[in-house]
Amino acid sequence: MDTPEKYQIATPISKYEDSPVFNYINSLSPIKPVKSIPTDQTFSSLSFASPSSVFTSPHINPQRESRFLRRHQFTDPSKPEFSRRDNDENTSEGVLDAVHQLDYLDPGRSDVGITIDPSNKDPKSDSGLPQSLKYDCTSPEDNRIPNDEIETETVPEVAGRPASHVHFVQGVSKERRQSFEIETELRGICQIGESEEAAGCDWGKLISDDTDPLIFDSSISKAHSEVQNHKTVDPGTYSFIATVLQLPHDEIDDLQKSQSIGSVDSYEQCETEETVTKSRDVGEIKETDQTPAVPSSTLLDKLVVSDSRAEVDDKKGKKCMQSSCKLGSQQQLSIRRRCLLYEMTGAHKKKLVYNSDSGSSASSQSDGKGSSDEKQFMPFKPGNIHSSSMLPGIGLHLNALATTAEDGNKVVKHEPLASERKPMSMSRSIPSLNSMALAQTPLNKSLTPNLLEMDLVRFDSEVQATEDASQTSDFGVSEEFNHGSPKRKRRRSEQAAENEACKRCNCKKSKCLKLYCECFAAGLYCVEPCSCQDCFNKPVHEDTVLQTRKQIESRNPLAFAPKVIRSSDYVPEFGDESNKTPASARHKRGCNCKKSSCLKKYCECFQGGVGCSISCRCEGCKNTFGRKDGTEEAELDEEETEETCDKNSLDTSSEYDVVLRGEEEHSDLVAPVTPSSEISRPLVQLPFTFGGGKPPQSSLLSVGSSSQMYTSQKFGPSGFICRLPKFEKHLEMIPEDETPEILQGDCTLAGGVKSTSPNSKRVSPPHHKIGSTRAWRSGRKLILRSIPSFPSLNPCQESSDRSPGKTQ
DNA sequence: GAGTTTGAAACT
DNA sequence: CAGTTTCAAACTC
Fold first, then answer.
1. Which nucleotide C1' is nearest A551 CA?
2. Distance A532 CA to C1 C1' (A)
């Protein structure tokens, strides 16, 4: 059964591969070639998955892809080329290489162990699996030039190898089939859990599993990836969460060992340990972890399947498979990265190492500040995994992270705590949401959704931030390994350095409990990188943090909402103006600049990469992203170039512009392909979300993007940040507005989607308005599906307070 | 790295 | 709601 599905699933990807967007994405990430496989999954997962995942996916994907390639290479020792790579990678960075290898191996291993062993005749079976996967992705049977080309484009350095791989793969069509079988088997495993959940999926359950929906992002993506990717992926994705959480825990390892099912954990384990053995272990944890993930995955699978089926053709099937595999892997990778990133965020710099020692790193990292945070990331304990896994999605939330961190610290060390806090922090992932969102609930029931969104957004942002950081680090490494493009490497490293340097707060008097604190404002706990004094924004002071948050929210329900909102109006245009993106998005409150002319980061609008709007009270506005008076993006482009060159923006702006332009361009390219404007914009997003071209995904993506945007703003300085702003522009608006709507849900998406702020209070972007979110609608609809639990939660959870905002 | 500038956040 | 103060980021040197 799986096989057909796979093909079906794969097809969508193949489409994307051909699509300019796909190419673009590939170009973005050198590794992409590898990705090709997972793409389908990505999409599917994306649709369900949380935005964050989507966000990450782009970034992550590249890495993963690279990893994949490497893995494959690594796995395929038989081939000289591969061996070379391995060597190269190893030489470049032993740790990273090890990690990458592990990643690849993990999935591969699981697969191999499962599939290859039986099917593969050759001793190389191990390599064979990976190869098969890779090849499948690339087009094992069908030598699709496009894929190869893409890959080569993205990964010029690797290209040669890939090509060889491709050929090899082609020859190995059988192997691929085997891999499919394996995948099917894996799916079967995963599906079982999924099916169970799916069958049982009651909204209530979903709600109860709030975390799941959220978690889905990661978990779902994982699940999808697993299903689509052939099990191997799943394990990886799944493992990602589990690993992140679990890695720290030795217990997990034990559990994993005991369990044989999942490959997920294997991922982490593999990372920590080294490959082969991990594959076996993977299964164990999976069950627990997967369970939570399963539902999402199942849903995703279903969706994906349906989509894929519709689209898929036998021919495409292969390609799709490949692409899907790639996508899936990417997603998984992205997911992992997130986790890692979180961890990274906690230990940012340290985390780099962490990658190598995913498990150990998490635990080890706990340092003074960082430790707590890091731990948060780690939160999942093996035992908790289930619940945590469920929550993980939420966990993604910054708060969750923070809470999780606490929990992680406590939980990991003190499981009881976890249980105790469950309500708030439950699993790490959830806790964040719960603690933050629910705890904060003051905003409202209706708000809750918003909160969730917010959380998600924040989470995304954080993730992004972390990712950015991690990416920078990871990217630096991975890319370097993978791509080797010196420029990118440099950038990455630079960005990473910037991120690290820039990240986190420096509060001295606010105790990090006021909006002055960027960490607090972002819904994150302060971490190591922070140089704050007397910081109370730590998991240890969760109660205080939550209370403070509530207070602030009571004063201003939107206080923690993304500052930049993308107007729904904006969307409709998409075709047009990918470039205008900035204009479409607006700062929710507007700026009050008087001396900076809205050309410096002092200006929140500028910092957010959005143009000033009527709501702004700025004087002498020269915002390159759009002036209050009306000049907007079109001009912006010109102005930007000029201004950017001119002012301080030199650094940021110049990069900014470049990035934006590049993105815009990409977006433009994409736009045609993808229906939604969103897609066009967020380069990364598009690929992910749209890869499937599924509108829903876009919505999800949008959400994620928004969060990203959010973070990006904060992180602004870093190159990623620069990008983020753009994304943010696109997405930011969406998330808040959309989510709220969705959450409110009640708001029927279809109908009237109140495109704008769910709560009039919430975001009231004066500008936006409404409306037009048609483009978004698709996304919204998708969102609803993906996040059904939220809506239900909202009503259920608290009707009590609707936040002043909306709910209506 | 220290000091200054800036504008948001918080307070009155 | 307006004015003032506080705060920390952004920026400059």
1. B10
2. 33
Contact residues for strand B with beta carbon within 7 Å: A 514-516, 521, 552, 555-556, 559, 563, 589, 591-597, 600, 602-604, 618
CA of A766 to C1' of C2 (A): 21
Rounded to whole angstroms, the distance from the CA of residue A321 to the C1' of nucleotide B8 is: 50
Cβ count within 10 A of residue A741? 33
Asked if A28 contacts A153 with a C-beta cutoff of 8 angstroms, the reply is no
Return the beta strands (E) in A572-612 as ranges. Answer: 585-587
CA within 13 Å, CB half, A546:
25
Q: Would you say residue A597 has pLDDT above 80?
A: yes
Q: Which nucleotide has its C1' atom closest to residue A548's CA?
A: B10
**How far in angstroms lies nucleotide B2's C1' from the CA of residue A506?**
15
Q: Which residue has the higher pLDDT, A448 or A613?
A: A613
Identify any residues that bridge with A586 across adjacent strands, giving them in sequence order: A565, A611
* Domain extents in chain A: 2-345, 564-797
Nearest nucleotide (CA of A531 to C1') = C8
Residue A318 to residue A37: CA distance in whole angstroms = 10
pLDDT digits (tens, 9 = 90+) for A180-235: 444 444 454 444 444 444 444 444 344 334 433 333 333 333 434 443 444 333 33
- The C-alpha angle A395, A386, A540, rounded to 5 degrees, equals 45
- Within 564-603 of chain A, which residues have Cβ less than 7 Å from strand C? 600-602
Query: Could you read off the pLDDT of A128-150 as tens digits, one per residue?
Result: 343 333 333 333 334 443 443 33
Mapped onto helix, strand or coil, the DSSP state of residue A242 is: helix
Tell if A522 CB is < 7 Å from nucleic strand C: no
Q: Which nucleotides of C are covered by protein (CB under 7 A)?
A: 6-12
Distance CA A265, CA A262 (A): 7
> In Å, what is the separation between the CA of A439 and the C1' of B7?
30
Categorize the per-residue pLDDT at A566 as very low, low, confident or very high, splitting at 50, 70 and 90. low
Distance A51 CA to C11 C1' (A): 34
pLDDT of residue A567: 56
Distance CA A212, CA A390 (A): 4
Mean of the per-residue pLDDT values for chain A? 45
When pLDDT is cut at 50, 70 and 90, the band that residue A631 belongs to is low
Secondary structure of residue A566 in the 3-state scheme: strand
Q: Taking chain A, what is the end-to-end CA distance rounded to the nearest angstrom? A: 45
What are residue A611's DSSP bridge partners? A586
Q: How far apart are CA A406 and CA A392, in angstroms?
A: 14
